[in-house]
Amino acid sequence: MPINLDKLWVFRIIHIDNLKHDLSHGLYCKSANKATEGYTSIGSKDVIGRRDTKIVKCYPDHFVNDYVPFYFSKRTPMLYNIITGHGIKTFPQRDIIYLCCKFKKLASDKFNWCYTNGNAAVAITKFFSNFDGIDNDIDWHSIETTDFRDENADGDEDRIRKKHAEFLVRKHVPAKYIEKIIVLDNNTKIKVEKILREIDSNIDILVNPGQKFYFR
């Protein structure tokens, strides 16, 4: 399917308690060790650990944890695991927020970047360092569908890996590239507005647009 790169967004989900830090300092890769004491991790420790030694295939001297990861997908299996506690620490869905960046602004010569056709920690996942073939490199049906069961309607046993296709930016993404924040409900929006006032930021806040970002 043809993708309009000028309208393509990438998403990073974080715990709301990390928002002030991330908007004050930008987004750092794990290997930079820039997270402060009390920073709330929402990922699987096992998966994060494997990414320490997982090579970025298009940049063989780099590891996945040298990059700041974003998703193309909304309402991901990772978010489902976070709110259900499936193999990961549980957090209320309202505490998970999306930081939204424009793909084309990050996929530029200002950054060392690449993208994948699935979860970057999985051995069969491919990496790409230019977007000439992005229409076909990524399974966009998997990105958009909400049916990521093992026995999904398409019979696609690789759905979960492909839905976790990633956009990776090396080392650091300055906070100025975060253009929107998406939250579950108005109560969370009020909390985010308070944080933004404290740091004098006026980023747009959207409440679950199209009901596409959170689980019911």
SSE series: EHEHEEEHEHEEHHHEEEHE
Distance between the termini: 28 Å
Shape: globular
Low-confidence runs: none
How would you explain this protein's 3D organization?
It contains 8 helices and 12 strands. With 216 residues, the protein is of the alpha+beta class. The chain has one domain. The strands form 4 sheets. It has a 4-stranded mixed sheet with strand order 1-6-11-12. Helix 8 links the parallel strand 11 and strand 12. The model has no long low-confidence stretch (mean pLDDT 94).
Quick structural summary:
24% of the residues lie in helices and 23% in strands. The protein has 216 residues and is α+β, with helices and mostly antiparallel strands.
Q: What topology does this entry show?
A:
Elements: E1 9-15, H1 19-25, E2 27-28, H2 45-50, E3 55-56, E4 59-63, E5 67-71, H3 77-84, E6 96-102, H4 103-106, E7 113-116, E8 127-128, H5 134-137, H6 140-144, H7 159-163, E9 166-170, E10 172-173, E11 180-183, H8 186-198, E12 204-207
Parallel strand pairs: 11-12
Antiparallel strand pairs: 1-6, 2-10, 3-4, 5-9, 6-11, 7-8, 7-9
Quick tags:
alpha+beta, four-stranded mixed beta sheet, four-stranded antiparallel beta sheet, 12 strands, globular
